[in-house]
Amino acid sequence: MKKTLIVVDMQNDFIDGSLGTKEAQAIVGNVKKKIGEYQARGDEIIFTRDTHRENYLDTSEGKKLPVEHCICGTKGWEIAEGLEVPGSICIDKPTFGWTHWNDRNFEEIELVGLCTDICVVSNALILKAMFPETEITVDASCCAGVTRETHEAALQTMKMCQIRVIGE
Question: I need a surface site. Which of 54, 85, 120, 150 has the fewest CB within 10 A?
Answer without folding.
Answer: 54
